[in-house]
Write a structure and sequence with these properties.
about 280 residues, T3SS_HrpB4, globular, Type III secretion protein HrpB4, about 55% helix
Length: about 280
């Protein structure tokens, strides 16, 4: 998708237009658990409802989608939020060595990061992306946390599957300047029962990425919005399970992972460079 980016208000208008397109089809792409809960529908009724949505006219679909989003508490982002860049200047949380990051320079890298200015991701922009693309970004976050593990994969089928789920080649995603201080996932598997990458499917990877992203945002800005991407949230189960292992991991571990990912989204999603660039 191309959009004018020479003026902030033109970028905001293009972002708002993309958001409205997503909103107009929410009833089709939202996780079924939302419709089931908000309509009080059983399995048979839900199946009938979804069949009706397939053939619904555009105006009818938009009306249903807006009603669903409103019932779920979704609010449209302000123009002020949409005019802000993908990364906003902020200070990172104080880092401490946890023994769970790999590489000989990990402690030094974390200490160095603590003294540097960082960027706060404007996560509300995820609601501008089509839902499937937004889910891919969540999977990118999970894979960037597991970048050392992903780099060690040699099975071509697994690598191809991960690339498809993330919407970008796994080598390209994990090829960044922070591979040396990647979390030691082998140690996490042993210490806190983190499931290995091979045990996750596309849905599980998106849930893990969402949990990591929300953790990073809360750590960097405790006073920030609790859920900055409420529309994309509807693509995930209504009852959002948090990976049990994450609670046992120090929040400082790879805390800048989301900011680093947002800094690369214009490269990883070139068709959305106007939004994240």
């Amino acid at each position: 998708m191309n959009a004018p980016v020479d003026l902030p208000f033109m970028r905001a208008a293009a972002a708002l237009d993309a958001y409205r397109r997503n909103l107009a089809e929410t009833a089709r792409w939202a996780d079924p658990s939302w419709s089931a809960a908000l309509l009080g529908a059983d399995a048979a009724q839900l199946a009938g409802w979804q069949a009706v949505l397939v053939w619904a006219s555009a105006p009818a679909l938009e009306s249903c989608s807006r009603a669903l989003a409103q019932a779920a508490g979704v609010r449209m982002p302000s123009l002020d939020v949409l005019t802000q860049p993908a990364l906003r200047t902020a200070l990172p949380p104080a880092s401490a060595g946890s023994g769970l990051a790999g590489g000989a320079g990990s402690s030094a890298a974390l200490a160095n990061a603590a003294g540097q200015s960082a960027a706060q991701p404007n996560a509300a922009l995820l609601d501008v992306l089509p839902a499937q693309t937004g889910l891919q970004v969540l999977r990118m976050r999970a894979l960037s946390f597991r970048r050392a593990e992903a780099r060690r994969l040699i099975d071509k089928r697994s690598r191809s599957q991960l690339s498809e789920w993330a919407g970008v080649g796994i080598d390209r995603l994990t090829q960044d300047a922070h591979l040396a201080d990647a979390p030691d996932t082998a140690r996490l598997v042993a210490r806190v029962a983190m499931p290995p990458l091979a045990a996750l499917d596309a849905a599980g990877l998106a849930l893990e990425g969402c949990a990591l992203l929300l953790r990073d945002l809360t750590t960097a800005d405790p006073a920030g919005p609790r859920l900055p991407f409420p529309l994309l949230r509807l693509a995930l189960p209504r009852v959002l399970p948090t990976p049990p292992w994450l609670a046992a991991v120090p929040p400082q571990l790879d805390a800048l992972g989301t900011a680093r990912l947002f800094a690369r989204l214009s490269e990883l999603l070139p068709e959305w460079a106007w939004l994240f660039g």
